[in-house]
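During the reporting period the student researcher (J.K.) took over the structure-prediction task from the postdoctoral fellow and processed the backlog of single-chain submissions. One of the processed entries is reproduced below for the supervisory committee.
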Amino acid sequence: MTCPEFEELLLDYDKQKAQQRSTVDAHVSACESCRTLQSALAEVDIRLEREYPAIQASPVFDNRVHARIRTLNAAVRKPSLLPELLDFVGYLSVTAALLVTLVLLFPNVTSFLTRLTLNSPATIGAEIVVVMMAIGFGIKVYSDIRPDSH
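J.K. obtained the following structure tokens:
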């Protein structure tokens, strides 16, 4: 099981059977993140019971909250192709920029691109492509170095 699955089990820890509790306990003893979550949940329970001793949530409310949490967790776990797409754009941009740079640095290579004049439409098009690749690479780098939002 993964940590998100154990986190879900920690929410229902009091309702679990002994064997499932021992599985959760074994994971929590080895996982600092889940141990921290367990401590936080225990602290919340203690404070709520101390602050509101006579208030008990109805089973219907409890089930609705847990169903909503499962729905939200399922939405978070959906894989996204955006990171792979940004990686592809970034690496394609770097590769294309290197190829254009090599072609421009070594004009002795006989090719169609090296015979073009600087004012030709193809050269201007190539410059636009290089600028677009640089922008794509910038987006890729930004997406890699920005802090995660969760």
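The committee noted the following: The longest helix spans residues 121-145.
J.K. will present the remaining backlog at the next meeting.
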